[in-house]
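MODEL INPUT / OUTPUT PAIR
PAIR INDEX: 1
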Amino acid sequence: MEANEKTLSRNSLLAKEELEKVKVDLGKGEFVYVRQMTGRERDNFEQSLIKEKKDAKGNVLSYDRALGDFRAKLAVVTCCDEEGKALFLPDDYSLLSQNMSAKRLELIINAAQ
């Protein structure tokens, strides 16, 4: 093991991690902060991109991609204020997708990815 390496304990791994955030210039002197997702947020985001196909009894037959509003969904999960608190509610993605330019959404998701 190298001198600066450290094995983390269970408590260290379970402690709330400080998520990285970056300031994203959206042009016109405007900006937004974009932060990393937690594991749960990423799982929920990825699940939102899959749609189940079910039979008449409700049994899952297959899964389809549901990529509609992908960029806005990612922006909703990652845009935050200076302290890292989410700016949007989960269902804001549809309105955001309708009202924000693709150019600005692209700047946000590039930082988020």
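PAIR INDEX: 2
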Amino acid sequence: MDRFSVNEIAENLGIHPKAAKTRLRRAGVQPVAYVGPTALYSLDAIEMIREVRGRGRPKKGKRAE
């Protein structure tokens, strides 16, 4: 069973590690194991968060309503 850290997932998807962690949380994906303080996720986690998009930053001068 392949296991991936947040940094490895981010590298695979071409996004920032913080964005990967946020997407994992938004998708409700739980780690399959821990190695010390590092959470490890399954290959399925990468596929699940590939569909989750970030909200992005609001445009300057525009208010979210």
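PAIR 2 NOTE: The first helix runs from residue 6 to 13.
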